[in-house]
Amino acid sequence: MHLVDVEFEKNVLEVNKKLAEENAKILKEYGIKSYDFMGAIGSGKTALIYQISKKILDNGLRVAAITGDVAGDEDAVRLRELSIPVVNITTGKDCHLDAHRVMHALEKLPLDEIDVLFVENVGNLVCPADFPLGTDKRVVVISVTEGDDMVVKHPYIFMVADVAVLNKIDLAEYLNVSLQRIKEDYRKVKPNSDIIFTSARTGEGIEELMKALGL
Fold first, then answer.
1. How far is CA 77 from CA 46, 178, 204, in A?
2. CA 58 from chain center: how many Å?
3. Sheet containing 86-90: which strands, arranged edge to edge?
4. At what angle do helices 99-106 and 3-29 cross, to 10 degrees?
5. What is the pLDDT of residues 63-107, one digit of tens each?
6. How far apart are alpha carbons 123 and 41 in whole angstroms?
7. How many Å is the Cα radius of gyration of the chain?
8. 88: which strand partners?
9. Domain locations in the chain as residue ranges
10. pLDDT 10s digits, 123-176
11. pTM of the entire predicted model
12. Residues 26/113, Cβ–Cβ less than 8 Å
């Protein structure tokens, strides 16, 4: 990589960091708890956000979401079934959300009517890691359908995430996936931490995940 490219990338990341800090200030000012859900396509990010949102809505909290995808608005449509405010961001060729896009999305939300905000990042296990959005916590979601070597292949995103989730564990026995290996691989990246096992379909692990998020 040429020096000019390195300098450009560095500048982009620094600008994103400053904008993320501005987002964090805005969210804090309104007393909003916020979460950036990262993970591969099909890992179940939308399903987990949906299940958590239902539970906290039942508890009287007000929820909103920002969804990101390279094209389409299927995730936004799904979350709108909960009758919550949702802003969809289409990134085109970009494989991640950035703080600038999220800042503009915040302008479209009724912030004084929100207690909890979920940001569903673009389906990718590489790009989103370098672009914090200003949320309180970052969550990385993988599923057993992706195999049991995902932590080994993508360690950096697990390093930067505050919470790690292995979803679709109800399918593990049918796919011959070792949950123990994934757990051990994660502990090598994050010593003294456990990856949370969930199934958005059955509801298993949802309460534990909510506890990890402080909800």
1. 10, 34, 24
2. 22
3. 86-90, 63-69, 116-123, 33-39, 137-143, 163-167, 196-197
4. 30
5. 999 999 888 899 999 999 999 999 999 988 888 999 999 999 999
6. 4
7. 17
8. 67
9. 3-213
10. 999 999 999 999 999 999 999 999 999 999 999 999 999 999 999 999 999 999
11. 0.93
12. no
**Which residue, among 168, 178, 22, 47, has the nearest Cα to 102 in the 3D structure?**
22
> What six digits make up the tokens of 197?
């096992």
Contact between residue 121 and residue 36 where contact means Cβ atoms under 8 Å apart: yes
Give backbone dihedrals phi and psi of 204, rounded to 5 degrees, phi first: -65, 135
Span between the terminal Cα atoms of the chain, in Å: 43
**Options 3.40.50.12280, 3.40.50.970, 3.40.50.300, 2.40.33.20; CATH of 3-213:** 3.40.50.300
